[in-house]
UniProtKB/TrEMBL annotation:
The keyword Flavoprotein does not apply. It holds the Pfam family U-box. This is U-box domain-containing protein. GO terms for molecular function: ubiquitin protein ligase activity. Keywords: Transferase, Ubl conjugation pathway. Residues 13-87 form the U-box domain. It catalyses: S-ubiquitinyl-[E2 ubiquitin-conjugating enzyme]-L-cysteine + [acceptor protein]-L-lysine = [E2 ubiquitin-conjugating enzyme]-L-cysteine + N(6)-ubiquitinyl-[acceptor protein]-L-lysine. InterPro entries: ARM-like (IPR011989), ARM-type_fold (IPR016024), ARM_PUB (IPR058678), PUB22/23/24-like (IPR045185), RING-Ubox_PUB (IPR045210), Ubox_domain (IPR003613), Znf_RING/FYVE/PHD (IPR013083). It comes from the Eukaryota. It comes from Escallonia herrerae. PROSITE patterns: U_BOX. Pathway: Protein modification; protein ubiquitination.
Length: 413
């Protein structure tokens, strides 16, 4: 009942018919279902997605699941927001409407028809690209209409028409690929080689989109053999690392580049190619520029490369590696700490010089804080192993202080 609704703020009462019957929150994108009831789009979509087939209010079965935007109610809500601005109420933005499935089908047909003029096909692909950029909902609608198969066909069949190929590539970079679609790409060396060639394109957008598709293919491929074939492709690491080293500020290049590099480095037998291509320098030099989740992935890649001899030697030779890894412990996240500790363990196990550098950088304090923290058990085990390894390097008073942490009772990985 209206009287049971509590005001959101002192002095302002949200009209009950502006609230979603499911969430009881102010509706931002009101839509009407087949029973005539209106709900906030995100709430009713979640209701249906969990398997419900009835109207939440009336309990009448929904004859269809079409959601009709209630523009009149949305405008009234916006006007109410403006009128109550003095109470701190912000005007809800006008939502972009989801792509019409019929329009998506038409655009895909137009783009895939080789009898259509080039400009017509390009126009259709650009409209699809714009829709895909707008929202997850649109990308979901596009994916359900056989779009990925069509776009893959355009990408590789129309490689003579670079514009068509590049537009298809840009859309595919925003969509997940199924196992069969990933295999379609990974199992053909010519297709992989074409994607690798695009990593060296003059346009940074084309290069980044190609790297994104390569990462999506690797992630979608369960076969170790197929992943290995991709990682072994000629110049693939050079292209990915070139994106990481892009000199201008372009956050997406860093984000996509590190995702692709990490995916390729999961194949152990070809990690040495990443080292040869300059991955060590790129990772250490760009590490301060990554956002949190990307920094975690970068540190995971560092740890992977430290597990091979050439990678460990290259990181050890870089003057900033050890101080930077020590500094990162407990600074970014639990995962970042775990990966940094793992990399330091590999480096210090292989090099007495790295041990001295770690001690000079203050690793003792960091490790002692780590084993007392709420960090992951794996991170603590790595810290204990590193403390044991470095025990002879501590000043006498530090060794005495570290005795309580059972460094000799380390459980190996």
């Amino acid at each position: 009942m209206p009287g049971s609704l509590e005001p959101l703020d002192v002095g302002v009462q949200v009209p009950y018919h502006f609230r979603c019957p499911i969430s009881l929150e102010l509706m931002r994108d009101p839509v009407t279902v087949s029973t005539g009831q209106t709900y906030d789009r995100i709430s009713i979509e979640s209701w249906v997605a969990t398997g419900n087939t009835t109207c939440p209010v009336t309990r009448v079965p929904l004859s269809d699941f079409n959601l009709i935007p209630n523009h009149t109610l949305r405008r009234l809500i916006q006007e109410w927001c403006v009128a109550n601005r003095s109470f701190g109420v912000e005007r809800i933005p006008t939502p972009k409407q989801p792509a019409d499935p019929a329009v998506v089908r038409s655009l895909l047909n137009q783009a895939s028809s080789e009898t259509n003029p080039l400009h017509s096909r390009l126009s259709a692909l650009r409209r699809l690209r714009g829709l895909a950029r707008d929202s997850d909902k649109n990308r979901s609608v596009i994916s359900t209409h056989n779009a990925r198969e069509i776009l893959l066909s355009v990408l590789f069949s129309d490689s003579n028409s670079s514009e068509l190929s590049h537009e298809s590539l840009a859309i595919l970079a925003m969509l997940p690929l199924s196992e069969s679609e990933s295999v379609f790409v990974a199992s053909d060396s010519d297709r992989v080689a074409y994607l690798v060639s695009l990593l060296f394109h003059s346009s940074i957008d084309v290069r980044v989109n190609s790297a994104a598709v390569i990462e999506i293919v690797v992630a979608g491929t369960r076969s170790p053999e197929s992943r290995a074939e991709i990682s072994n492709a000629e110049e693939i690491f050079d292209g990915i690392i070139g994106i990481l080293n892009y000199p201008l500020a372009y956050p997406r290049a860093l984000k996509v580049g590190i995702k692709a590099l990490f995916a390729l480095c999961l194949v152990k037998q070809y990690r040495h190619k990443a080292v040869t291509a300059g991955a060590v320098e790129a990772l250490i030099d760009r590490l301060p520029d990554f956002e949190k989740c990307d920094a975690e992935r970068a540190l995971a890649t560092v740890e992977l490369l430290c597990r091979i001899q050439s990678g460990c030697a290259a990181f050890a030779a870089h003057a900033l590696t050890v101080p930077l890894l020590v500094k990162i412990i407990l600074k970014i996240s639990d995962r970042a700490t775990e990966y940094a500790a793992g990399a330091l363990l590999s480096l210090c196990s292989a090099s007495e010089q790295c041990q001295r550098e770690a001690v000079a950088a203050g690793v003792l304090t960091q490790l002692l804080l780590l084993v007392q923290s709420d960090c992951t058990e794996r991170a603590k085990r790595k810290a204990q192993m590193l403390l044991k390894l470095l025990r002879d390097s501590w000043p006498d008073e530090s060794v005495g202080n570290s005795g309580d942490f059972a460094c000799s009772d380390v459980v190996p990985f």
